[in-house]
Amino acid sequence: MSFHLAACAEMLRQDKPILWRAARLQEMGFGVGLWNWPAWDLDALEKTGATFTIMNGYLEGRLADTEGAERLLRSAREAAQIGKQLGVQRLNLHGAGLGDQGLPIQQLVHVAPGMWLRARDTLHRICDLAEAEGVIFTLENLDLREHPGWPFKSTADVLSPSTARACASILTFITPRSARAT
Asked: If you write DSSP's letter for every residue of 156-176 in order, what string do you get?
């Protein structure tokens, strides 16, 4: 799989409308990433002709506990439908939902061993969903400097035997800054 160089339309030129940003990124040859897709007019975004390479693959929930996993799976199912509408190449997952300023909604200091097993089981269920929907999810770690209290905070966490490559429909996605943060 090749990767199209992309930029998150929500982070650039925030003084301009999202439709302008998506169209401009497309004109410049970049793919377009989206985080907060429920905030946007999806039909209008689709009409920009932009190549949407990645978007948030869920809106709520957590990988590592039963209640959070059920919410994550419901949300991921919705994201898969939106992703297919926009032709999104990858749907991104994290260990838990992010709130204001990128902080985890439920902060954790330590991840208990049982949580890794639940995360693995949840990822297997995400695999089933991805295969049924014909989409690809990525699992991304986020560094502790910008996201304190994050359960999957390092490259080692994401690539651990409990989480890594649960199926062909989940790719590990490591951000460069996160790859340096251990």
From this structure: HHHTSTTTTTSSTTEEEEE-H
Indicate the length of the chain as a whole number. 182
177 vs 118: CA distance, rounded Å? 27
Q: CB of 103 within 8 A of CB of 70? A: no
Q: What is the pTM of this model?
A: 0.78
State the pairing for strand pair 31-34/6-8. parallel
Buried b (16+ CB within 10 A) or exposed e, 42-56: eeebeebebbbbbbb
Query: Token digits for 153?
Result: 């905070």
**pLDDT of 131-176, one tens digit each?**
899 998 887 766 556 555 555 666 566 555 555 545 555 554 444 4
CA distance 78 to 109: 30
User: Is residue 33 classed as helix, strand or coil in its secondary structure?
Assistant: strand
